Amino acid sequence: MKSICESVAEHVALGEPLGELAEHVATCASCQRVVEMTGKLAATRHDIDPGLGFSARMTAGAQHRIVVRRRRRLAAGLAATVAAGMLGGFVITREPDVAPPQQAVEAPTQPDEELETLDDADLAGLVELADTRRSSRLSARWSRIQKPLAPYKKLVEGETP
Questions:
Q1: Which of 25, 96, 107, 129 qualifies as a FRET site for 152, CA 20 to 30 Å off?
Q2: Which domain, by its residues, includes 25?
Q3: What is the dihedral of CA 64, 70, 71, 73, to 10 degrees?
Q4: One pLDDT digit (tens) per residue for the chain, 161 residues
Q5: Count of beta carbons in the 10 Å neighbourhood of residue 136
Q6: DSSP label at 158?
Q7: 8 Å CB contact between 5 and 31
Q8: Is residue 10 part of a domain?
Q9: H-helix or E-strand spanning residue 43
Q10: What φ, ψ does residue 89 adopt, rounded to 5°?
């Protein structure tokens, strides 16, 4: 069982009022020292001094953190912009998927011989124009092309033929 002195020490440690135990404290020297000790400890309490320049250090530290956050935010925004630009450039410049290239068909060495065997005149004309070696050397005479187009030109300008 607890002694009365232990009960006094428990009440003092918990910060509870002594109540009925106050009569015992008045007569017991050990309990008086325990109660006086708490008063002495409370009397030595003082505010903590952060030291000289505390507010200046805190202000400088806060400003530094703000600057670092701003730099990181700008760097992240710039990185996102560059990535979006690169993705857009890739999408715009890429070529769509197409069927695999077919093997080139060799052109006939003598297109004139094939023309003789064809019955259709239009088909023969197309085959002759398909000869790229010959067609690349051909050039048009613009005077011959413009002459038949003259009535159409007048029509477009609003004159009647």
A1: 129
A2: 4-43
A3: 140
A4: 478 888 888 888 888 888 888 888 888 888 888 888 877 877 776 777 777 888 888 899 999 999 999 999 999 999 999 999 999 999 999 877 665 555 555 555 555 555 455 567 777 777 777 777 766 666 667 677 777 777 777 777 776 55
A5: 8
A6: T
A7: yes
A8: yes
A9: helix 29-43
A10: -60, -40
Query: Which distant-in-sequence residues (6+ apart) come within 8 Å of 136 by Cβ?
Result: none
Nearest residue to 3 via CA among 26, 31, 37, 36: 31
Number of domains observed in the structure of the chain: 2
Does residue 89 form part of some domain? Answer: no
How far is Cα 118 from Cα 102, in angstroms, rounded to an integer? 26
Query: Helices 4-14 & 29-43, crossing angle to 10 degrees?
Result: 10
**The two three-digit tokens of residue 39, written as one number:** 């008063």
Residue 9: both structure tokens together: 């020490």
Counting other chains too, the contacts that 23-30 makes at CB distance below 8 Å and 24 or more residues apart are: 28/4, 30/5
Kindly state whether residue 90 falls inside one of the protein's structural domains. no
pLDDT for 52 equals 83
59, part of any domain = no
